[in-house]
Every structure is written in C-alpha cells, then in structure tokens.
Amino acid sequence: MKKGLVLEGGAMRGLWSAGVIDVMMEHDIQPNGLIGVSAGAAFGCNYKSRQSGRAIRYNMRFARDSRYSGIRSLLTTGDYFNAQFGYHVVPRQYDIFDAEAYNRNPMEFVVVCTDVETGLPVYKSLNHIEEESYDWIRASASMPAVSKVVELDGIKLLDGGVSDSIPLEYFERQGYDRNVVVLTQPLGFRKTPNRLMPIMRLALRKYPHMIRAMAERHHMYNYELDYVAEAERKGRCLVIRPDEKIPIGHISHDPDEMHHVYQLGRQIGERYLDKIKKFYE
C-alpha cells in the first residue's frame, strides 16, 4: 500500500488545511507522499520538514508587513506576495525552514504548476531542497494577474490550480492507492465561471492557452470533484473538507482571522484523526 496526501489550494483558505495537517504531523502520521497545489504546496512543504505550526506562525507574523505582501509589493516587484522576501528571506532568516529534516524525510513531495504557454499541468518532485526548490513552490502558488510568470527549467509557470486543482487522479497514476484528500470547500460546492476573465485576458494576453485554461477551469474543477467523490465511494480515498465555507478571502492581512481559520482546521483534524489512522492502516 502506498499512502498519499493530496492538498488542494485556495490561497488563504490553505491555512485551514495547515491546521488539519499540523494535527496529522503531531500524531506522527506519515504518508509516503504528498502532492500540493498552490497554497497546498506552500504550506504542505512543512509536512516533509516536520515543522508543525510554521505556516500559521509566519503568516500571522508578517500579515501586515509590506515586505511580505500587499499593493506596495505588487507595484514594486510585480508580485502581491513578495517573491524574494517570502520565499528566500523568511525561510532563511525569520522562520527557518528545516532543510536538513526535509532532506532526511523519505516522503515524496510533489508540487503542481501550470505551464502558461500550453495551459497544461507540470508536476515537479522536490525530494531534496535546493535553491531552485523554493521557486518551484512559489510558481505553484503564483496567482495569475497578481504574480509574475516564473521561469524554471525553460518553462514559464503560474498557479497549479489553474490546470489541476485536486490532483488525486495524477497521484493514483503514480501508484498512490490510499489517499487522504484535503479540500478547502464544503460538500456541495461547485465552481462557476471566473467573473474576472476580462482582467485575466488582459493580464495574460501573451498566453492564449493559459487564458483558455482559466476560462475552462470550472469544468476541470467540477470534474475533479466528481472524480474524488467516486474514489471516496469506492474506498480509495478519505476526504476531509470544511463543514461550511471557510471564513477568509483569497487575501488577508488580519492575524486574528488567520488564526481563527487555522484553529477551525485543527478542530476538523482532531475530529478525523482516528479515521485517518484507520484508513492508512
């Protein structure tokens, strides 16, 4: 049996997922592999480094720091979430990312990005942290229109959620046959067409395949919800989702709001703990 953990994105809703996975870490639940998309990648990397609490800690600390995120960063760097400060300065100077623990942990860690020139997903295994690894995680979480395109290995990349929001099907193809899937929307949610497509068409006018992927994202996402539901019905996955809409937007600068959402995730994690252990047996 190959045990997987699938984390979808959702921007700051990912702090709810961070609460769930911190509970799992604290109870020494160790899947064989984790695949994360967008915020699922940015916060999920802490699972491999075994750093429970890190995601909520640095987000609260820098919530109102213009070096970390905000309009000033967007105007001066092209990224709402400052790439250099958030992905290189913070993990090395302020809230140290434990690269040694990450590298020792045999758990596979995969991030999902979107190739803006094809509109297709790119899956990158980051089993050892190197300088470029932080930028792969950044690329996965780089939201269109408020982030610069990230070029790595000759590929131009943005948010993985555009092309594969819930990569359960991909992980199953890689041999992971017992997957815990952490979603950030409640049961019954269906994605609708993006109301910001006029802005996206302008911001991404050089990349017609990316525009098409964004315009069709709701179809892809709803197909993946159906795939997850079928896998759950057949016992191939255990789905963890919030009871109701997570009370936070895509962007937040309120530490109290962040902490509240994180605690909601921890409560669900505690509730599902025995189910997770039994599922992974």
Give the gist of this structure.
By secondary structure, this protein is of the alpha/beta class. It has helices at residues 14-26, 39-48, 54-61, 71-77, 83-94, 99-104, 131-140, 168-173, 197-203, 208-215, 217-233, 255-279; strands spanning 3-7, 33-37, 108-115, 120-125, 150-152, 155-159, 178-182, 237-240.
Low-confidence stretches at least 5 residues in length (pLDDT < 50)? none
Overall radius of gyration:
17 Å
Shape: globular
Q: Indicate the percent of residues in helices.
A: 40-55%
Determine the number of helices (DSSP H or I, runs of at least 4 residues). Answer: 12
Mean pLDDT: 97
Number of E-type strands: 8
Q: How much beta, percentage-wise? A: 5-15%
Characterize the biggest β-sheet: 8 strands, mixed
Structure class: alpha/beta
Distance between the termini: 9 Å
Q: Encode the helix/strand succession as letters.
A: EHEHHHHHEEHEEHEHHHEH
Description:
This protein has 281 residues and is of the alpha/beta class. It has 12 helices and 8 strands. Strands 1, 2, 3, 4, 5, 6, 7 and 8 form an 8-stranded mixed β-sheet that branches. The longest helix is centred in the last third of the chain and has 25 residues, at 255-279. It is globular. The model has no long low-confidence stretch (mean pLDDT 97).
